[in-house]
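Researcher: Please predict.
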Amino acid sequence: MSEELVTCVVCKRKFMWSYEKQRDYRAKKYDPPKRCPTCASHARYDHPPRARAAKRSAPVWHSAALGDSTPMPQPTPTSPRPSVRNPTYVIYGLAILILVIAALIVLFWMLGG
């Protein structure tokens, strides 16, 4: 096995595919590269995975009771933890802070200092 010249499908330039890279690709069972390193980095950073995933259409949920023919509204995901901006949690946080400060004041007073 030796180094290979591969033609980029984007810019049509030839680039060297080293023996080490070939060995790594085969070990991970990847296909040979189609883009040169420059075009590959542009493709990776111009279109991050989240942007591509957002373009996909969301699955349509069907009702088994209606014979899987009527699309049902998709359930909205709920957050697993409460929002920090919720006023209730802000008030609880301030109350705990006041209790901690009061406890420290009492502790220093009892120690005489």
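Model: Residues 20 and 69 are 53 Å apart (CA to CA).
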